[in-house]
Design goal:
Elements lengths: L14 H39 L3 H61 L2 H19 L6
Length: 144
């Protein structure tokens, strides 16, 4: 019903925009995972301390090994988040570069068209005529 005249609307969302969105969503999921891991680590540390106080050294050691593994996962997650953020920044910067290059291309085409309209000889002739007119205006012998 929205397309009364059969025109299809083109989406302003580009593939790069979709990629950036997916990367940011993945980054957010990893941050949530990090928070869950951190909370689990805190609980397990407290439990390990309690087990040590209760004299259950073996269980405490198992929890500490598990904690060490989860800390490694936390480090890996942090590096993945860093990689995702770097990729998002690279994509966004590349989009800006593409816009700059497109602007330079349009400017270059405009200059080329202007050069086709006016040759160097034409510009030199106009400058010469302008200088002659200025000299004529400054001539003191000229009668008013």
């Amino acid at each position: 019903m929205g397309n009364l005249f059969g025109r299809k609307r083109r989406s302003r969302v580009t593939e790069q925009d979709r990629a950036v969105l997916q990367l940011k969503q993945q980054r957010d999921k990893l941050r949530q995972y990090q928070k869950r891991l951190s909370l689990g680590l805190e609980r397990e540390r407290a439990l390990a301390r309690q087990l040590l106080r209760d004299g259950k050294k073996e269980k405490a050691m198992l929890l500490l090994k598990k904690k060490r593994y989860q800390e490694q996962l936390l480090d890996k997650t942090e590096s993945q988040i860093s990689n995702l953020e770097r990729m998002v920044q690279d994509i966004e910067f590349t989009q800006i570069e593409m816009k700059v290059i497109e602007g330079l291309k349009i400017g270059n085409e405009c200059l080329n068209k202007m050069h086709q309209v006016m040759s160097i000889e034409e510009v030199e002739r106009i400058i010469g005529e302008t200088q002659d007119a200025v000299e004529y205006q400054r001539d003191p012998q000229r009668a008013p």
